[in-house]
Amino acid sequence: MNCPNCGYEETKVIDSRPMENKIRRRRGCTECGYRFTTFETAETPLLMTVKRDGSFEPFDRNKLIRGVFNAIKKRPINSQQVEHIADNIENYCANAMISQITTVQIGEMILEQLKNIDDVAYIRFASVYKDFSDIESFVKEICELDEKRKFCTNSDCENRKI
């Protein structure tokens, strides 16, 4: 660390304290004695989102959260659960050291998590994400979701010619 006063290359740390998501360090120049403060943070790589048309944009956590909130309106899901979904996606990318993720991957990860939280929110999100164009698409998705839960049987889906 160079001294901002004289440019000398050697400084020593006088005091170090954690602050929010960074570390505050009080430093002193060993040449001129000038004291200054630095802040140290962990560098996180910029996560880029690859859209369906092939274009790129920076990952926007708030956009993800808004999309999930649209699906959970008037449902018994709290904001901590939505934050947890966003955290899981960000943590997955950070742990796998991924710098690019497709909107398809993001959507599938959200659907997988909503499936375990609330069926209605899952169907709402799926209807927008998968761009349902007719009733049969809804019924097919509900039947696939509920094969485990036995709300409808495969014969119900077959009778609807799906």
Structural notes for this entry:
Among the domains are: 1-43, N-terminal domain of TfIIb (Single Sheet), CATH 2.20.25; 48-113, no CATH class. The chain is 44% helix and 20% strand. The chain has six helices and six strands. The strands form two sheets. A three-stranded antiparallel β-sheet has the order 1-2-3, with no helix packed on it. The protein is elongated and about 75 Å long.
Low-pLDDT stretches: none
Q: How are the strands of the biggest sheet laid out side by side?
A: 1-2-3
Secondary structural class: alpha+beta
Report the mean per-residue pLDDT as an integer: 87
Helix content estimate:
40-55%
Q: Give the overall shape.
A: elongated
* Tally of DSSP β-strands: 6
Using only C-alpha atoms, the radius of gyration works out to 25 Å
- Helices and strands, in N-to-C order? EEEEEHHEHHHH
| Distance between the first and last residues' Cα | 66 Å
- DSSP summary: helix tally: 6
Beta-strand percentage range: 15-25%
* Main beta-sheet strand count, sense and barrel state: 3 strands, antiparallel
